[in-house]
Amino acid sequence: VQRLEKFNSDGLFQLFPSNIKRQEINSKIEVRLEEIDLWNIFKVLETEMIITRTGRRLFPTFAVTITGLEPNINYMLLLDIVPVGDNQYIYEDSKWHIAGKAMPHSFKRYYVHSNGVQMGLQWMKDCVQFNKVKITNHSREHIILNSMHPYQISLHIVETSDIGSITSAKYNTFTFDETVFMAVTSYKNPDVTHAKICYNPFAMALRGI
Amino acid sequence: VQRLEKFNSDGLFQLFPSNIKRQEINSKIEVRLEEIDLWNIFKVLETEMIITRTGRRLFPTFAVTITGLEPNINYMLLLDIVPVGDNQYIYEDSKWHIAGKAMPHSFKRYYVHSNGVQMGLQWMKDCVQFNKVKITNHSREHIILNSMHPYQISLHIVETSDIGSITSAKYNTFTFDETVFMAVTSYKNPDVTHAKICYNPFAMALRGI
DNA sequence: ATCTTTCCCACCTAGGTGTGAACC
DNA sequence: ATGGTTCACACCTAGGTGGGAAAG
């Protein structure tokens, strides 16, 4: 038996149990990552994302353009943040080093795009933004990650017209190499800090310094 | 044939054609208006709501607490703003007077609550806020009203687990006398202006004046 | 003239940044 | 001592108010 539980009003769900094999959608769906140049600037530096108690947004923002959906079939979009490898790390001598086995990834949470169930036509019309997703090390309200562990964003496109059948529906999964990042509670690499300040409008205050 | 068209990413839909009779939900659903004291303060003064080209929020905000839904059945919530009576008005000598027949209410638009389809249990858990709804006299992006015409908020609770079947699903409708208001492009009654400034946090700047 | 509509504005609310000191 | 975590803070972005002048 499988169960999907809603965790906040902004799209966070948790799946019990977490690992289920479902059937693929038989269709040529393509997903293009938006702002790929910006993602690559951070990838070169080895991206870090801050996690806080109260939840922190991702920057760069995860956004995609989708093609190849059936215009008149209903879909949902689920954002997923999955562990990369089996190790945790430390930052020493300006480099990331393995520091032993990873802590268990306890929570299998999905962020369901707030548009809910929509027809393919609607999803393909504009780029799909996941700008309100937040990551945390504690809060029940957001996606929970372990600090000093690497992760990667993946996207599930689920063919369903009923949110209740999400656990039995067909789906395709797309992962993005550019979105690999280290979860941290404070930035370790000063070059990452500088790039965040340089490109994130909310850090504008610190640009002159 | 009936058709539901999505108009923006924040829950606005338009129904073609607009008048359909559907079956009622056979259940003792009760809906309580939140902030009823605040609504009544404005009701005494004869509530005015500003409409602008770019869309203006409602104040007081429309929010409800719902009881009596089936916990494990899926529902959607649709906000509706319906004309009251058949006349348009003018404000003269500190009073509203009939100024002829109403203009036609051309657009039958619904604001679908952004939580989309949820089970009764979820809808009843917390009070349901419609704080992002906007009204306008022109914009395709929001609920279109005629200035100097009276309206009333109503709520449709639709029993459906599929947004696509919204036009054929069972539903119950709830109206709220406290929410009757006059759509205006600028406030006519100075007492209404004062009450808006007094109670709306976004008008805080004008409280000292 | 009179009344309604439009638009720019100052001034708020609301909330997203990294900082740097303190804590663990 | 070392290095990760937390928190109040100043400083932004983003956007919701009615005012008041101008336009219709």
UniProtKB/TrEMBL annotation, chains A, B:
Keyword S-adenosyl-L-methionine appears in the UniProt entry: no
Location(s) in or outside the cell: Nucleus
Keyword DNA damage in annotation: no
Record domain T-box: where: 33-208
GO molecular function annotations of the record: DNA-binding transcription factor activity, RNA polymerase II-specific; RNA polymerase II cis-regulatory region sequence-specific DNA binding
GO cellular component terms, semicolon-separated: chromatin; nucleus
Protein name per Swiss-Prot or TrEMBL: F-box domain-containing protein
Species annotation: Didymodactylos carnosus
Lineage: Eukaryota, Metazoa, Spiralia, Gnathifera, Rotifera
